Queue: 3 jobs
Job 1
Amino acid sequence: MNLFNRNSKQSGRKDPRELLRHVETALQVVFVNTLAVREVIRRKEADILRRVPDNILPGAPMLWDAGVESAVNNAKGEMDKFTNHHNNLAESKAVLSLLEQSEVFQRAKSVITPILEAIASYDAENDSRRAHHARTKAELNLLQEKAHAKAMAAIDADPVIVQAKAELAKAEAAL
């Protein structure tokens, strides 16, 4: 039983996920880990932007109550924390750049990216097919309900039913 090729009869195409089994494990690991580093950097950037201290932004109010020297030292400390996060991000970006430029990643990318694109295309095609099937089935159900209602209305007008109802009415009146 092939778990990945459930819709092969409908699509006539094999599921490209099967192709991933034939990709070297080392290439898969390098590719996935590089993408993970990209995601970590994206999150670090978002975190840094969230952490920019309000008191180092231009136009931010200074805490003059504590004195100028204290306010300057506070802003300097916040700026140091910010630059430490920024330096870690710069190091991470340098590592990512080395990973992305490596021969192994380039080879992995050239092998895996087309497979991922084929998987996305295959899934979109199957989703479209399933949506069409669901719409068609819903239309059929609606038509069946209308036909049933029409048939039930026609039954009430049938001469045999009209006669049976008249006899029932006479029987009820005699009670």
Job 2
Amino acid sequence: MIKAGDHCNYQGWWYKTGELWVDITIMNRECNVGVYSYINDSVDPRCFDNSYTLSKVKKWKLKPYNHYENGMYEAAPMNSCQDYPAFNQRDAVFRSFMDSVKGSKKKSDEAEKKSKETADKAEAAAAGAKHALSLALSHKTTQ
């Protein structure tokens, strides 16, 4: 049973691939002055450059290259998170990083091949529909 203050040790790796992010940065010139100083002392405003940033405003997944993989190091003797069912941030599975990279490449290649096959089928269907339409139009004009 998990009690307040319980913790576990996770020694592992994770990575994401195939994501495109948009960040926005606004750079402007700001001037400020206190109201009292402006009215009584005719102080000129203090001006300076400033910037504001919004990170990860928009995200696109670049399929078929979008993958999320993670794993624990098996050689790390202090991993204890697999003993806690409430630990769900990462998979509590021992995995090799290099095997994962090879597997991600294989997944990408398979998804790319499947995407190409789907595009070829759609292209063939469009060509068939275009041919049927041209036959129907030619048949209509000959009547």
Job 3
Amino acid sequence: MISINKSTAVWAIVIILVVLNAATLTSMWMHKPQLKKKVEIRDFRPGGPFFIEKKLNFTEEQAEEYRKLRTSFFEQAAPYFEKIRINKGRLYGNLKTSGDQKDIQALVDTLGRLHSELEMLTFNHFKEVRNLADSTQRVAFDSLMINIVDRANQPSPHRGDRDGGSHWRKSYKDDKD
């Protein structure tokens, strides 16, 4: 019988395991599925970026003006999105520390102001879009906007339990009456 001391056997097993691990990792690396290109959120919006112009059946002149308004809106909104992102990062960075309550409140106030200004910018944008429409298109636009706002207020597992926009719809209808 061949006599093998225990330390030699352990080293042999370790070497075999290292080789097997390397072979497994190499195999996984060589046969990994190809990653698809990054898909942007806007690709999932109903009808894509020109959903409104298609839904309202804009004429070519209206569509041209709508595209200008849309481009202008996103150029004006981009700084708000960036400032909101930065300030949220600062705010939630305070979770790691015992941040000063005054600084935290200042960040929350800044976020509230930025959201308010962005909401006003968005409202004015849609008001301008509505003004592009003729009377028939405006009826369709008004209905579409109610659906968009309702959809934005729908409950989501990522946004917690909300009432699905029913509070807005009720107050909106009450105001119209």
